[in-house]
TrEMBL record:
<feature type="transmembrane region" description="Helical">
    <location>
        <begin position="49"/>
        <end position="68"/>
    </location>
</feature>
<keyword id="KW-0472">Membrane</keyword>
<feature type="transmembrane region" description="Helical">
    <location>
        <begin position="12"/>
        <end position="29"/>
    </location>
</feature>
<protein>
    <submittedName>
        <fullName>Threonine/serine transporter</fullName>
    </submittedName>
</protein>
<dbReference type="GO" id="GO:0003333">
    <property type="term" value="P:amino acid transmembrane transport"/>
</dbReference>
<keyword id="KW-0812">Transmembrane</keyword>
<keyword id="KW-1133">Transmembrane helix</keyword>
<keyword id="KW-0997">Cell inner membrane</keyword>
<dbReference type="InterPro" id="IPR018227">
    <property type="entry name" value="Amino_acid_transport_2"/>
</dbReference>
<keyword id="KW-0813">Transport</keyword>
<keyword id="KW-1003">Cell membrane</keyword>
<dbReference type="GO" id="GO:0005886">
    <property type="term" value="C:plasma membrane"/>
</dbReference>
<feature type="transmembrane region" description="Helical">
    <location>
        <begin position="80"/>
        <end position="99"/>
    </location>
</feature>
Length: 107
């Protein structure tokens, strides 16, 4: 940044970037914790966990993945995308009997 905007401009842009990204990371941390807790309690039927420990564990897990670099993160996400696509296809196929063909017939 400093080479394009000078020292002061680089510092200003760095602070603006921090204040733009930091709230998004907080929201993401809260959202992923809530999603995990809901899944843990409602879908799996387990007893509620301490929210603070779950949030800390999930954030440390994400930091651990990021620590080992972009390549590992891309590899992990590439494995997760296939079950996600398969679940979308299976859900879509299971909903075919509930389609309303009257909408198509009107056209």
């Amino acid at each position: 940044m400093e080479e394009h905007f000078g020292k002061t401009g680089g510092v200003v842009i760095t602070f603006l970037y921090f204040f733009a990204i930091c709230p998004l990371l907080w929201i993401y941390g809260v959202t992923i914790t809530n999603t995990f807790m809901t899944f843990w309690e409602n879908q799996l039927g387990f007893a509620p966990l301490n929210r603070g420990f779950v949030a800390l564990f999930l954030l440390l897990l994400m930091a651990f993945v990021i620590w080992f670099g972009k390549d590992l993160m891309v590899k992990v996400m590439s494995y997760l995308v296939w079950p996600f696509i398969a679940s979308l296809v299976l859900i879509s196929l299971s909903l075919i009997p509930y389609w309303n063909s009257a909408v198509i017939d009107q056209g």
